[in-house]
What does this fold into?
Amino acid sequence: MPFGPSDLFWIGVVPSAAAALAMWVCNRLLARPTATRPAATWSLSIACGLVVGMVAQNVRVGWPTALDKLLHPRVAIDWLPWLVLVAALISVLAAYAPRSWQRWLVALACVFAIATPLRLLATNASAMSRWSLGEKLGILAFWSAAFAACWLTFALGRLNRQPLLRSGLLVVVALGISLTVAASGALTLGELGGVAAAALLGATGIAAALGKLADGPSHAAGPLAVMLGGLILLGYSYSSLAPTNAALLAISLAAAGWLPTNWPRHSGWRAVLRTTLALVPLAIAVASAVATATADPYG
Amino acid sequence: MIARLWMHVSLLVALTFAVAAPTARAADVYDLDQTHFSIVFSVSHMNMSYTYGMFRQAQARVVLDHENAANMQFQMAIKADSIDTNNAQRDTHLKGVDFFDVASFPDITFESTSVVLVPQSDQPGINYQVTGNLTMHGVTRQVTLPIRLLGEGPSLDGKPHAGFITQTELKRSEFGMTKFLENNTVGDAIAITVSFEGIKQDAAPPR
It folds into this structure.
């Protein structure tokens, strides 16, 4: 599988640096009282890293191709940057909007949770011609609920504290999604998992260095849910990601976000429980995908 | 008087041609013989070797007119999902988002827009320059294919067949397939050979 230093630069260093820079700019240059709130800072930083990373992935082929894919999206994967940006915009709006707007913003997020899988699935001409209307509605309802749950789970993560652990786990889960999806026959999607991990790493690193970790990645719940949930959907719908592996990855994602318990009481044991719940399904998914992938056909 | 006679003669000649026209030899329609077609391609692997593959499922229709090549038509629809490179894992990869993205673009199609007879050629058979729209990976480009009519006549099934071949080279990057172009890991240029027989149909050609 050809993957060299140049690839590592474009889909690792570039998105990480972009997210880190955005985090630094938001925290330093705009650091006036109430100028930036954690939700806005984190959402913008993560979205910046993700979008820059997705463009950088295509820059390896050439700038015209990269810009064309961004400005004229044709296939589902081309829409991911725009969906990430919309999710970030909703998060920023939620950070600054008055309390009376919250109900409308929740409604907007729900509409977006429906629109995201709709947009990603709409280009699947093969499935669209195969599914009946009832199947289409059922599948859309399932994925919409999954996206909404993913967003909510990440956002609720702040109740569990441990932001550094959750950030670290999310980086590992993003890398696990990357490996699983790549081993399932979609290297492009696998690379995007790497982009997500790099963006998270860059943003978390700078935030920790600046002492602005706050509640960590739960502030960027929207962009992360769209990106990581989107990769699972795309891997399943457009590649050969097995349904069991998709479910295992989803469990792993959820566990890295929020645990609906304060048990065990000791934070150390809670960290162990969270880590186990996130990494065990992830390890099974990665091992299963890698085991079914035989020798690299491209040598 | 002479003028009137001339008018009657003209009318008679016109009527004769009008009645005779439908009996002139019409163009023949040939549909793809599913047991005699090959769609083969080859692509460079890291400048070291060529990997060959084929598509196993297709539909095609040819309208053949020996008297007027401009009336001829070539149509082909290939099932992208039927790609076979003799390696299941590679085929899965080729069907996915990195290459053909068969979920989004299930068919590769070619439809001719003009056919020109090449009067003299060193190639055997009857040679045509066929220009048309090739749609692959959701991108439509105009291409010109040298298509040769190799032979025609009754086959073993007793039905009239006509056999064709075309060979061309495409750049996959022009169709939005850019994965692994770096260092020519998987080459950009794809050499394609399509050879097939069509079985003559009874119905009149589509207009």
Observations:
- The two ends of chain A are 6 Å apart (CA to CA).
